[in-house]
User: Fold these one by one.
Assistant:
Number 1:
Amino acid sequence: MRAAHDHGALILELADHLRSANHPGVASLLHSDVVLTVDSGEGARAVASRAQGRCACAGELVRIALGAAEPAADPAVSVVVTVEELNGAPGLVIRARGAVVGVIVAAARDGLIGELWAVLNPEKFGGVAGMSQPGGPFGHY
């Protein structure tokens, strides 16, 4: 079990697993009763607004990371997942064609990820510091 101070390590691991669409790897980082809340707004591809449980949340996270950029999940579109500071803590920024298409923040519980919030609504990206350029304090991994 991971210590509470390893939140950054959890996010880095989550990013690695999402980049490779490693569903079991993503699931291994999630608490058994994890909850994912998604704000897709009207300007983004619709996904479930809420998922609960390790398997359901892992599946939604992989779908978000791979398919948030294009409804048809165009393999020609390069999707980049970076770890950046969001609301004062490490979070994930998802870009396609250089544009931000999603952000994911998480809260840890018992050494695992216990709650996640994914914002796919482009109208809400403007208020997040460091969103215009890849990198940020945690860099591009």
Number 2:
Amino acid sequence: MDREEKEIRKQRLKELIQQSQKKRLEEEYTNLASVYKEDYQDINSVEILSEEESESIYDKLQDNYPLVSYGIGGIDWNLMKNKMEITTSRQIQQFINEQRYDNVKVYSLKKASGYPGTPPVLVTPINNIIKSFNDLKYVEQILYCIEKKFVLEINFSGKILLGWK
């Protein structure tokens, strides 16, 4: 085997390894998203965004809301004017009814996932969030509505804050 053949084989092996790693990450992303989806009462109304779409949603959140720059991140509530603490799903329902936000889409952004890239973002109607509240309130995340400009942040401590613009 001459030098050129060795280089070709070496390059081919490198490509195969990269393809394998990419496939493994895609499977890990899909599996993680499927686990997240299980927190919802109506699984069929939950859509899993691609990694590129998820990254775009994280970017929009960062562009529209003040975030803390320490720890695992989250909303900097000291800089939010419109906010309230949430203790029951009824409070969310009341806010939705008062604002006439029925059936808006809400993006679920996990704050810590262990996934090496952008964690999967799920999107579902606000009514599915309300129905699933008892399961979701134990999962650290930000629920973000781009259309109506509000966020719900669920912290590990169990504290849930709602903010809007």
Number 3:
Amino acid sequence: MGGMHNQRKAVPQRSRAVIDQEIHYFLSEHPESHRAKSPEEEEREDRAHVTSQGGDINNPTLVLSRWKIQFGKHQDSTFHWLLENDVGYAIHLVSSHRKERERTGSQSPLMVNKDGLIRYPSTYPDFVEAVRFHQAFEEARVRSLQPGHEEQALAGFGDFNFETPQSMYESEDSKKIRLTSTASSFCSWRSTSSS
């Protein structure tokens, strides 16, 4: 029995190049696992970038616009780039991080990077409104999935963004009455034509 404890299985040796390849592959498939830069390191790099472009390093919004996203599908893109090229994703990230912040007080470099992502677009009122709507829409959608609360979903379009079907049916506003009448007529027509 003592001999069994001393026996070891042969483990194939992997070269350093193979290990480096595996690490590179893992990091490319799981970019969120890399070490996030400290806020000081990020700000130092971004101030240098702003200076090299002739910008004012005393403008906190300009410096923050050069911060790089340190996670997700747009990792290493600047906050400015994200708002110009994928505003829907930016809205989702900001909304999601706000919920995450409610659950944790972490000051890890990654959380601080996400905090910066909330601060930067807050100077754009249209973006702030879009995030507010996204959060309200999602909360209403979740509520509307509960039995008996189907009428609490938000319309989510035009002048009726924050309206629920119930508030539109109960309204005395002529635009809302017209819309709900048209929708009711369409639904009635659709149900009779599919029978």
